[in-house]
Design goal:
heterodimer; A: 363 residues; Rossmann fold; OB fold (Dihydrolipoamide Acetyltransferase, E2P); B: 268 residues; mainly alpha; globular; binds adenosine-5'-triphosphate; binds magnesium ion
C-alpha cells in the first residue's frame, strides 16, 4: 500500500449538473494504479453518476478526467480502455457465455481464434469453463455475475468499474464473491473502482475508500483510517456504529482538547483542525472501545445506569443512560476472555474509555 | 382477486359468450365443411370429396386464381418487407431517439391508419393516386399496401424495443463496439422476434386486404380477395369455399406463428 504508485485515474474538479440539479459538486479524486478503490455513500449521493462519467456514458458539466496522462472526459465509451461490470450484468442474451466474454476482444479487432482463446482463459479464472456454451439465461445469478466480470476483464482494461455488482446476490454468495473479487483484483493487477452503499462491504474489500454524500467527497482514506478517524459527523455516523455526543470545547493545548459533556464531566481527546475553544461540536465514540465496570477506573469514567442488554450473537450491546444526560451504547464481545460480565438493567455502572477512543468531529 | 370458478359467474355470462362465438364462427365452419362437399350445390350435402380443391388448381377459373394468388403473395411479401424495414427505423427513432419535438405527434401519425376507417383511407389513397396521375395497377396496390402495413409492423416491434433496456447497447459500447456494431451485434438480434412478428402481421394484413385494394387496383389486376369477390358476384360456386378455406388456414397459421414468435423472450 505504498503511496508512490502513480495515479491511474485522476478526477479533477468534476462537476455534474442535470438541469438545475447538481449531482456532483466539484469532485477531485486520484485513484492509484492497481488499487481497489471504493466509492461509498448513501443512495442518491452520485456514485453511479461519477462512475458513468468515468465510463463515458455521461458527459461532464465541468472538470477533467485523466487516465494516466490522457484526458478522457470527452471520449466516447468505446474509445476508453476502461470496462464496466453493470449492476444487472447486462449480459447479451442472444450470445453464449463464451461469445459474451470474447465480445470486447472481437470489437478490438482481435481475430476470432485469439478472442476465443482469451475468453476461455477468463472463464477459467472465474471457474465457469464448463458453462462456456450456455446462454446467460441458463446460469444462476452468481454465475452471471462472474460472466460479467470475465467479460469486462477479458480486454485487459486499464481500469475496471463495478457498480454495486454484488447487490443482487444473497448474503452468503455475496461474502464469497467479495473474497473472489479481491483475489481476482490482486491476480490481474487491474485498477478497480467499486461502488457500494454497504459500508461493511467497503471496509472489507478496499485499499482506499471515498465516502460520499450529497454529491461531495466527505473523506478519503484507508478503511482503518476512515473507521478510526472519521473527519466529520456524516462519516462517523455512516461508517459503523457510534455514539455521538454534543460537547463544548473548554480548552485546547498541547495537541489536546478538553471537552465538557455537561454534568461536570470532562473528556480529553486529540485536537482537530477547525475546532477552536468555546465551540460546540460532536464527539464520536465507537461502542466497542468502551467498557463497563462497577468500580471507577480513571478520572474520566462516566457514571450511568443500564437500560437494556441486546444480544446479537458475537456481541452484547448494553444501552445505558449517562448521568451527564446522554444515551450510550457499549459493545462487548460475547466471550469470557475479556473479563466482561453482563450488568443487569437498573444497575449503576461506570463507562470507561480506551485511550484515543473519543474523536472530535467537524460538522 | 378471487380465484376459481366464481370469477366469471355472472348470470347469463356463459350464454352470451357462446352466442357471440357461435355468430362469429358458425359461418366459417359452414364454409369449411361445404368446401369438402361432393355436390355442386352449396346447401345440400352430397358426400365428402376434394374435387373443389382440385378445381381451384385445374378448373376453368384456375388461371384467374393463380394470377391472383401470385399478385397477393408477391405484394404481401414485398409490402411486409418494406413496411417492416420502415417500422423498425421508426421504432428505433421513437424508443431510442430520446425526447424530440413532436414525439407524441409522431407516434400518432405512425399509428393513426389503424384507427381511421379503412374506407376513408381507401378513398384518400385513390384521390392521391389520381391527383399525381399514377396509372392504377400492380404498383398502386403495392404502394398502398406498404403504407397501411407500417403501423401493424410497428406495434410488435416497438413493444419489443421498449422491453430492451438501453444498458445492453451501453455494455456493447463499453466493450469497444461503435454505434453500428452495437446495433447490429446486440440490439438487432434482441429485436428479431419483434421484427419477425411485425413482418408476419404486416404480411397477413396485406394478404387479407380487400377494401383498399379494390379501390386502387387497375382493371384486370386482381388479388385473391378481389378475385374471390368478383367470382361471388356471378354466383357462389363451391370452389370459392375451397379457396376461402385455404386462405383461412394459411392466415391462422401465420397469425399463430406471429403470436408465438412475439412471446420469445430474449432479454433474460
Ligand atoms: N439522468 C438524470 N437526470 C436527472 N437527475 C439524475 C439523473 N441521473 C441521476 N440523477 C440524480 O443524481 C443524483 C445521483 O444519482 P446516482 O444514480 O449517481 O446515485 P447513486 O449514488 O448511484 O445512488 P444509488 O446508491 O441509489 O444507486 C440523484 O439524486 C439522482 O436523482
Ligand atoms: Mg447507483
Amino acid at each position: 500500500m505504498t503511496d508512490e504508485r502513480p495515479i491511474a485515474i485522476d478526477i479533477r474538479q468534476v462537476i455534474k449538473r442535470f438541469g438545475d440539479f447538481t449531482a456532483l459538486k466539484e469532485v477531485s479524486l486520484g485513484i492509484r494504479d492497481n488499487e481497489f478503490f471504493t466509492l461509498l455513500g448513501p443512495s442518491g449521493c452520485g456514485k453511479t453518476t461519477l462512475l458513468r462519467m468515468i465510463a463515458g456514458f455521461e458527459d461532464v458539466t465541468a472538470g477533467a478526467i485523466y487516465l494516466y496522462d490522457q484526458e478522457i472526459a470527452r471520449l466516447p465509451p468505446n474509445k476508453r480502455p476502461i470496462n464496466t461490470v453493470f449492476q444487472n450484468y447486462a449480459l447479451f442474451p442472444t450470445m453464449t457465455v463464451l461469445e459474451n466474454v470474447g465480445f470486447g476482444l472481437e470489437m478490438q479487432g482481435k481475430p476470432r481464434s485469439e478472442a476465443n482463446r482469451r475468453a476461455g482463459e477468463m472463464l477459467e479464472l472465474v471457474q465457469l469453463t464448463q458453462f462456456a456454451h450456455r446462454k446467460p439465461s441458463q446460469l444462476s445469478g452468481g454465475q452471471q455475475q462472474r460472466v460479467a466480470l470475465a467479460r469486462a476483464l477479458a480486454p485487459q482494461p486499464r481500469g475496471l468499474l463495478l457498480d454495486e455488482p454484488l447487490s443482487a446476490l444473497d448474503m452468503k454468495l455475496r461474502k464469497s464473491m467479495q473474497i473472489e473479487l479481491k483475489h481476482i483484483q490482486r491476480e490481474t493487477g487491474i485498477t478497480f473502482i467499486f461502488v457500494t452503499h454497504d459500508q461493511e462491504e467497503a471496509l472489507t474489500m478496499s485499499d482506499r475508500i471515498a465516502v460520499m454524500s450529497a454529491g461531495e467527497v466527505q473523506q478519503l482514506g484507508s478503511a482503518r483510517d476512515i473507521y478510526e478517524h472519521p473527519r466529520n459527523m456524516f462519516v462517523a455516523d455512516f461508517i459503523g456504529d457510534t455514539n455521538l455526543v454534543e460537547v463544548s470545547v473548554d480548552r485546547i493545548g498541547g495537541g489536546h482538547a478538553t471537552c465538557n459533556l455537561g454534568g461536570g464531566y470532562m473528556l480529553s481527546c486529540e485536537a482537530v483542525e477547525g475546532v477552536g475553544t468555546g465551540s460546540r461540536v460532536h464527539l464520536s465514540v465507537r461502542p466497542e472501545r468502551l467498557f463497563l465496570s462497577t468500580e471507577r477506573t480513571g478520572p474520566e469514567a462516566l457514571r450511568g445506569r443500564v437500560v437494556e442488554n441486546i444480544f446479537i450473537g458475537t456481541d452484547i450491546t448494553t444501552i445505558l443512560d449517562l448521568e451527564a444526560g446522554q444515551r450510550f451504547r457499549v459493545r462487548a464481545s460475547n466471550s469470557d476472555r475479556g473479563n466482561q460480565r453482563v450488568f443487569e438493567p437498573g444497575q449503576d455502572v461506570f463507562v470507561n474509555m480506551e485511550r484515543g477512543a473519543a474523536r472530535l468531529l467537524i460538522d | 382477486m378471487r380465484t376459481g370458478a366464481a370469477r366469471f359467474d355472472f348470470p347469463g355470462f356463459k350464454v352470451m359468450t357462446f352466442l357471440c362465438l357461435f355468430i362469429l364462427y358458425a359461418p366459417l365452419v359452414i364454409v369449411m365443411i361445404y368446401s369438402f362437399n361432393d355436390s355442386r350445390s352449396i346447401t345440400t350435402w352430397g358426400g365428402f370429396s376434394l374435387r373443389w380443391y382440385v378445381d381451384v388448381f385445374t378448373g376453368p377459373d384456375s388461371a384467374k386464381f393463380k394470377s391472383a394468388a401470385f399478385n397477393s403473395f408477391s405484394i404481401a411479401l414485398i409490402a411486409a418487407t418494406v413496411a417492416t424495414a420502415i417500422a423498425t427505423s421508426a421504432a428505433l427513432a421513437m424508443v431510442r431517439g430520446g425526447r424530440f419535438k413532436l414525439r407524441t405527434a409522431t407516434f400518432g401519425v405512425i399509428n393513426l391508419p389503424i384507427l381511421v376507417p379503412e374506407i376513408v383511407t381507401a378513398v384518400a389513397i385513390l384521390i392521391f393516386f389520381n391527383t399525381i396521375g399514377f396509372t392504377r395497377g400492380y404498383m398502386t396496390i403495392l404502394v398502398a399496401h406498404i403504407a397501411f402495413c407500417i403501423p401493424f409492423a410497428y406495434l410488435p416491434i416497438s413493444a419489443r424495443m421498449q422491453g430492451i433496456e438501453g444498458v445492453y447497447e451501453q455494455a456493447a459500447m463499453d466493450l469497444y463496439a461503435d454505434r453500428k456494431q452495437a446495433f447490429r451485434r446486440v440490439l438487432l438480434p434482441m429485436m428479431m422476434p419483434g421484427i419477425f412478428s411485425g413482418f408476419l402481421l404486416a404480411f397477413i394484413i396485406s394478404l387479407d386486404d380487400f377494401i383498399i385494394t379494390n379501390f386502387v387496383k387497375g382493371a384486370g389486376v386482381e388479388t385473391l380477395p378481389t378475385a374471390i369477390f368478383g367470382s361471388v358476384k356471378q354466383g357462389i360456386r363451391p370452389n370459392i369455399m375451397a379457396i376461402s378455406t385455404m386462405l383461412l388456414a394459411f392466415s391462422t397459421v401465420i397469425v399463430t406463428l406471429s403470436w408465438l414468435v412475439s412471446r420469445i423472450d430474449r432479454t433474460k
